[in-house]
Amino acid sequence: MQSNGLRQVDEALKKMAARLSATSLHSLMHEPERSQFIYQFEDLTVDCTRQLLDEDGINALLHLAENCQLQTRIDEMFSGALVNITEHKPAQHMAARTPDHLASVTYQKLSTFANSVRRNPNITTVVNLGIGGSDLGPKMVTQALAGFHDGPVCHFVGNICPTDLHDVLVTCDPHKTLFIVTSKTFTTTETIANAMMAKHWLNRHGVDAGPAMVAVTAAETRAQAWGIHPDHIFAFADGIGGRYSVWSSVGLSVMIAIGIENFSRMSAGAYAMDRHVQHTELAQNIGVIMGLLRVWCRRYLRMPAYGLIPYDQRLAAFPAWAQQLEMESNGKSVDRQGQPLQLPAGPLIWGAVGTSAQHSFFQWLHQSVDITPIDVLVATHPAAGLDEQIWHDHHKSLAINAVAQAEALALGAPNPAEPHRHFSGNRPSVLISWDQTTPYALGRLLALYEHITVISGFLWDVNSFDQWGVELGKQMANQLQSGEGLENFSPAARAFLDRLNTLRT
Question: 328, 395, 450, 451: which one is catalytic?
Answer without folding.
Answer: 328
